Structures
1.
Amino acid sequence: MAAFGSWSCSFGVCIIILYIAATIPFSGAKEVDQQVVKKLRQNLTDSAKYDKNYQPLNSHSSDTVVNFTVYAKQLRYMAPEWNYIAISAFVCMHWIDEGLSWTPSEYDDMTEVTFGDSEVWVPTLSVHESYNQYGVRLFSAVKTDHHGNVVWCPLVTFGLRCQMDLRDYPYDEHRCAMNVSSWAHGYKVKLIGKLAKKTFDEQHPDWTGHFESMDTTEFQHPEQGADPVLRFTVFVKRNSPGYHFTVVLPCMAVSMLTLFIFWLPPSSGKKVTLGCASIIIILLIIQNLKHDLGDSIHTPRIVQYLGVTCVTVAVATLVSVLVLNMVKSPMVFRPPDFLVSLLGGVVGRVMFLCPLPAPRAADHEQLADATSPSGQAGH
């Protein structure tokens, strides 16, 4: 029994020792790996052998071929009044840099290593429509393997100029072009583009959009020749449901309010009040739309409609003033018979006109005075 107890105790001690050894990392091996990584990075980026400021020239090609893949991320900002759009996308670039190749057996069979994007050469991209030179990108590591295959996937935000046509506001749609090229130190960089993901993960509250297409073209530089360009087309559309209540319904209400001017009796002074109120409401709506429309190259149809409606209401109000003045004043001269018969027939019924009332006694007296020789002589 004593021997069995001693054996059990020894076995328990061994289990504890093995557990401690398994849970505590072997710092010596980790330190050796970090030293190898540090040595490899230093050897690859040694300024005597590698210059990060110059494009890598590979033995199998005179140009640096960069495979350019776009993954749509976010439609960040839209400002049609400024012709401005901001989008974010992961831009993954793949190229070969023989200066970043090595023999794995010399570095503990290490086949991959990462660098900061400021430590090695990366393509200098230029977006022709961008407000800044290269767009705003977040820091992203550059990964390379022992064959010199380099991968770089930064998240880039592009602020683009896009001429927007607002004639169909608030149901407008726009297509914006984004031309991407690279010209570094006098050497060509050949871009091969691909749209891997077209739909944005995060949309703007008032807009929806996606990358519509991508094609390859050339930009003719005045002195340096043809520059290969990747042309991306971004489609954006305004989310209109909210504008039904803020734009469309107020316009319909103003139109209905305008009709009431013609339905009121000719002797009602409220016709003028209603007309003036309609004009003020229309001007307030146009002023409110100015924030969304800005300096559009084309006049939106809804603004044209409101402008024509405002002029129509003004004319109707002026006619109401004249009619009201005629109703309130005595009838001195009776309208011509042909005009009375025209407006008293089908045309009058279509326009909801009442029959011309018979002249009053006071009107007869003023009419007789106006037509008598003595009355004419007095005038």
Note: The longest strand covers residues 64-79.
2.
Amino acid sequence: MESFLSTSKAVLSKLFNYKRIRIVLGNGTCDLDSAISTLIQAFSEYLDGIKNNEKDLAVIPLMNIPEKEYRLKTEVVFFMKRHSISSNLLIFRDQIDLKALKENVEIKLEIVLVDHHNLPNEDMYLMESIIKIIDHRPQDKRWPWTGRKVYLENVGSCATLVARNLFDKHPEVIDSQISSLLRGPILIDTYNLSKKVDRATSMDIEIIEALEKIGSLDLDRNKVFNEIFNAKSDISELTVDDLLIRDLKETSGVPITVLPILVKDFLDLQGSLKSLENFVLSKNITIIIVMGLDLTSEKVFRDIAIFSLATDQLKKKIIEALLSAQPSLELTLIKEINNKDENFNLVLYEQKNVRITRKQILPIIQNTISSECQC
């Protein structure tokens, strides 16, 4: 793996010597699943190129964040170091000019999307370059991707699909390092195959067992899960501003951030409300949804807050949609904060149905915004 990553990094200085450049692009949160899926799928694409004698092809695994934000991804930093992958072997979004590559008529730019299947507005220019999509989210009807190779399956982790692809195409390269790299995000995304959380599918379990067998891995999954989760929960070096952008996604102009702690505990941190206000003002928006998660005990706890400025027109509709969603989030009001001086409002709910994650909440928000716009 290190040899491939070194080769890809070296290619950056001579990209225009290649006729085809294939970028494997993870999602904008660059969480563990996205980061590992990006690396392993890029390795698979690289091996495809060697097998097919495609000497004019360069393959680049691209972390879809600026390099300066990498330190915020504490579990990714930990897990990469654990597998001897230093940050200087990784390629970040601000280290390559995709627009220049797209506009160069002598280069064919090819994009493989992993762990997402839609494009934000700022990446719409890449639309025609997409050749393949691998994702474990429900199909977004707005993004059918006709004419591309599409691998969308409802499994716990995108790494499961990437691992299956590697088993099918290049099983000979799956050693202990690659097996361990792939197992980590599957364990994290399925909460250690928890039956209560109910995110693991039969395919996730089959792939983990196959990885453990072929890689002769330590079978103590609890130890692996706890190490990664502890790294993910380590916010000792992060500010409240860092926490808001650490795991952030946006849908229909509404940002949804997931915290490694409960929102009620985040609100106890100094400057948290001011940070929320500054965030929405800096983005020129009026609302943000904040989801909290606590896995420090044997039980899973979730809560969710809607922070909005007084000028916001969507809060009421979004809250109604969340309260009436099916399956139910089982929301119980914890508290509401009205700050008339600062002109903002925050409503905090306990989420008793811990099986519902951001993946299920995203389409709820999308549908709510779409309905509101049609009115």
Note: The mean pLDDT is 94.
3.
Amino acid sequence: MSINLLPKFLPEHTLPYLKKWFGSYRIHIHITRDRHSKQGDYIKLPNDSHKITLNSTLEPELFFFVLTHELAHLLAFEKFGRRIPPHGKEWKLTFGNMILESLPVYKEEARPLLIKFSKSPKANFMASEDLVRYFRPEPETTDGVYIENLAMGEEFIYRKQVYKLIEKRKKNYLCQNLSTDKKYMFKSVTLVQRKKQNGE
């Protein structure tokens, strides 16, 4: 996909930043359906071009944020060499600077959160509860809810599986899959669906 076709997925005024970051690199942008395991990824192709894949379901600001994340991989590898860790200090420095540079793209309320995040970017923005609450707020018109707002013992649906909230452990929540009896830890701001009770 050409960079000129990206604006329909992006907030306004993002192209100048992208054109600067893309530079003379040959970058193939692929837009795909929603993937639960990842929001975007980057690989360098054998012909020295680059491929970035992004989920089509991301909201514009989050789409730009994820695209910036993936471009930071490209720029860090090109500047510091291919042997650096994917999310090491070189990538953190590159991504953090790109966030600060493109801060005007984001709404006013997001900027303090992004400035804080840019000081030591994480591999997944889900590690920042503040950014999760901003990019993925609780829906107002559905049964979607952050797991932290469920009652202990309450059942919920996550990725078509039914779970039961067992207990809180520090900032996370221990939950049991009712089909397999296996237990998993969930972050407090994981969006889940309330399980309707009989008669509702």
Note: Residues 6-135 form a domain with the Zincin-like fold (CATH 3.30.2010).
4.
Amino acid sequence: MSSRSRSRSSIAWTLWVCLVWTSVLGEVHDTNDDLNSGLSDREGHIEKRAGRACPRKWRLYGDNCYFFIKKNLPITTARQRCASKGAKLASIQSKEENNFIASKAKARTWVGLSDAENEGLFLLEDGSAASFLNWRLGQPSNSPYDEDCVVLSKVGKWNDLSCTTEKRRALCKMNKPLLGLPCPNGWVTGTVGDYCYLFGEEKMTQPEAIAFCAVNLGLLAKLDSQEEINSIKQYLTHVFWIGANDALEEGTYMWLDLSPVTFFPWASGAPSDQGGDEDCVEMDPQTGDWNDVGCNREEKRFVVCKKPANTK
């Protein structure tokens, strides 16, 4: 392609992006105040959900992330499940932490405390002695002589139970990841490069998604490597828009910042351009695969926005 053709393509692409933003922002003009006023609520929800540093479905408290296993399991299996997530059964070390966990627990839940090695000496998962205890009246009872593990009730009181015959829900705990540079409230700090990510809570059309990111001073996510994809997959469960598009020239993909796409983890058979108008791109977070899809206003997906860290 000649330099003149490339220049024309860049100009056309810029005009296309501007037209999309102008069109969408014009449509949402009457609801722009709602978008902005609702942003703090949305940010708060995302922060609670993702903890700004915790994986999806984990809960943030202090410097730790917590995950509730909702299936009744033997404690040995529960420990294995936590370990598979890079965590341990939760060791509770203060009244405040205990109250937080009790407020979220829906049933009796295994926690990381046991006197299996030395009867009456309860140790945390790391082998250290417990400095905080919150036994129910009459507990621990060690009846009938083999109750070496501990569960927390919905009201926060503890009870010793058998480690071999009982099955209960479980609570995993890990340190909050120390991630990159700080990001604004509601944004998750990335681990690959110095970027922040915002995960939309609702499905949107592609133009609406562009507008949503623009209102939040970002762009639809530009994902340049498998490493970056892997770093955000944990926060996602639904197919979402990314910022790649070949609307100007079929087969030539560009990001919304006008840079060319050079990394293509296409799903098998993609891109297909089925119907001749599949110019936008979605990603399946379960596989990390991309697929081309129509940009029209009927197609709706979830949204991931991206911007450099240390920007408001």
Note: The domain at 188-308 is CATH 3.10.100.10 (Mannose-Binding Protein A; Chain A).
